[in-house]
Amino acid sequence: MNLGFQELLVIFLVILLVFGPKKLPQLAQALGKAVREFRNATREIEESIKEIERSVDLEEKPTPPPPPSSSSGTQES
User: Fold this and answer.
1) What is the pLDDT of residue 35?
2) E strand residue ranges, the chain
3) Rounded CA gap, 75 and 73, in Å?
4) How many helices (H) and strands (E) does the chain have?
């Protein structure tokens, strides 16, 4: 969604008409807090997903096979 300058100006003017100049700073502050909280929540979710991926990767790594025994092929009875 790419908004140009004219579209942003129209949106700003509509908001100014609806809420008035006295409420604009409060609205901007609330919007800023909401965006900040959304970013923090998104970051926490991404970190959780990466942590889960790391733990799954560690569980899925195959264990190396045991080294071959150094017997010479003769069996003792």
Assistant:
1) 95
2) none
3) 6
4) 2, 0
